[in-house]
Amino acid sequence: MAQGTDVIGLAQGVVYWPPPPEVLDAAQAAVRDPSVSRYGPDMGMPELRQALREKVARDNKLYNHNICVTHGCQQAFINVMLTLTDPTDKVVLFRPCYFDHHMSICQLGGGREAGVVFGPRDSRTMHPDIDWLRSTMGQPNPPKVVALASPCNPTGIVLSEEELLAISDICAGAKAWLVLDETYENFIFSPGMEHKTISAPHVIHLFSFSKAYGMMGWRVGYIAYPDFDAADRLGKEFIKCQDTVCICANQLGQRAALKALETSGARYRDEKIATLKKNRELLLDALNPLGTLGNGIYGGEGALYFFAKLPPGCEDDFKANKWLVKHAGVCVVPGSACHQKGYFRVSFGNLDPVSMEQAAIRLKAGLARMVVEGIEAD
User: Fold this and answer.
1) pLDDT surpassing 50 at residue 1
2) Could you give the CA distance from residue 94 to residue 90 in angstroms, rounded to a whole number?
3) For 353, how many CA atoms within 13 A lie in the half-sphere containing its CB?
4) What's the mean per-residue pLDDT of the chain?
5) Phi, psi of 18 (to 5 degrees)
6) How far apart are CA 59 and CA 54, in angstroms?
């Protein structure tokens, strides 16, 4: 899209920092170990799986949960969908949704767009409409799975414990699964908010090393699933998908992930995430021509994102994005990619604070011009 012009990207959902130095040192030392180049256990390195069992119990209060290590959180989502759903089953996503969740569901069973049931969000908060979910799941033959991200990609909202418990109870009553993508568990920015997890036999949790530890390209995520009776029933199903899709997560990435858990990775992670507070402030100010939080601008509670409504007359979000590239030198994600036309997503994670200052100046000037001039005359 940029075609060689000077464009700053505010689109991609990544962080600007690399992995912790001790992780890189450990990976460099391990790369010549012959075992790194061989297949490993399908469900993950035993040492890493044990460390993650301890992590989810300690940090997420998920006791008696087992672990499947995957090639990032997106493969974890695919494994779960392959395991839990048949081609005729339906899955609830709340609009706007994470585009890769939607594409994953559509690709199962030869492309099943009809398998996605879109739920609405509150127009003021972008939180899921729980009353709608209660009504939908109370109908005959309800959806098999409800999938949510908290903190949310693309909206940047964080679900409260009360919301999660209400949604879980609705799913339990409908004998449905609740799948929670918690990639951004460490990214909480609104004062007084916390990342909450809930535990139940029908709730499955997805996590990632990509964002918090700057390990996007290392591709390590994991499924934390209930195993209350130690029979590992879900694990026996997950391993079929795992062996078919990838055999095992990459060995070097798993070594790096284990080192991040064993050393001062958490302190490094938290220090880096703290630098995003300034980025968040800069982007919130840049979005000011479109409104205020809760009125034209949404999210920023957690994850890396704001979700904003385009000005009247500029609802063609793909055209608006091209306009911003040409006239402001910034690139965003059109809301239609997330199945919410007339909006766009911006990320405050992929640039260091100095670079973000320049991006925010460009975005604010571009949006102010768009509000006055529109995009049709371009």
Assistant:
1) no
2) 13
3) 10
4) 94
5) -85, 175
6) 8
Tokens 């909202």 map to which residue?
Answer: 157
Residues whose CB is less than 8 angstroms from the CB of residue 135 and which lie 6 or more positions away in sequence, other chains included: none
Kindly give, in sequence order, each residue whose CB lies less than 8 Å from that of residue 192, ignoring residues fewer than 6 positions away: none
Mean pLDDT calculated for residue range 286-301: 96
Find, among 156, 114, 180, 147, the residue nearest to 343 by Cα.
156
pTM over cut 0.90:
yes
Tens-place pLDDT, residues 264-274: 899 999 999 99
Can you give the three-state secondary structure of the chain, one letter per residue? CCCCCCCEECCCCCCCCCCCHHHHHHHHHHCCCHHHHCCCCCCCCHHHHHHHHHHHHHHHCCCCEEEEEECHHHHHHHHHHHHHCCCCCCEEEECCCCHHHHHHHHHHHHCCHHHEEEECECCCCCCECHHHHHHHHCCCCCCCEEEEECCCCCCCCCCCHHHHHHHHHHHHHCCCEEEEECCCCCCECCCCCCCCCCCCCCEEEEEECCCCCCCHHHCCEEEEEECCCCCCHHHHHHHHHHHHHCCCCCHHHHHHHHHHHHCCHHHHHHHHHHCHHHHHHHHHHHCHHHCEECEEEEECCECCEEEEECCCCCCCHHHHHHHHHHHHCEECEEHHHHCCCCEEEEECCCCCHHHHHHHHHHHHHHHHHHHHHCCCCC
| pLDDT, mean of residues 279-296 | 97
Specify the residue for token string 């075992």.
35
* pLDDT tens, position by position, 25-49: 999 999 999 999 999 999 999 999 9
According to the model, what pLDDT value does residue 87 have?
Answer: 85
Give the pair of three-digit tokens for residue 67: 């672990």
pLDDT tens string 73-127: 999 999 999 999 988 899 999 999 999 999 999 888 544 566 899 999 999 999 9
